[in-house]
C-alpha cells in the first residue's frame, strides 16, 4: 500500500500539472511569509491560495478527481487559477505602488511572478483547449 501511494505521488509530481501545483504551493508560502513580515493586510490571499493549491495537489495525487465525478475538476481548477492570477496581479500592483519595506517590495515582485505562474496554469488547464 505504501509503495502504491509513493509511486502515485512521484508519478504525479513528474507531470507538468504536478510541478505547477508544487511551484504554486512554494511560491504562495514564500509570499505568505513576506506579507506576514511586512503587512498583515494581504495575508489572507496567499493563505487561501496556499490551502486551495494543497487541496488540489492532494486531489490529483490521490486520484480523487476520477472518483468524485459530480464536480467538473478541469473547470474548477481553471477558475481557481484564473481568479488567483487576477487577484495576485491586483494586490501586487497595490503593494508595489505603496512602497515600504524591502520585504513588501519583494512580495510584490513575487506576486507578479505568481500571477504569471497562475496565468500559465489557467491557460494549460482551460477545458476549452482540451
From TrEMBL:
PROSITE patterns: MARVEL. Keywords: Membrane, Transmembrane, Transmembrane helix. Its main location: membrane. It holds the Pfam family MARVEL. It is a multi-pass membrane protein. May play a role in cell differentiation in the intestinal epithelium. This is Proteolipid protein 2.
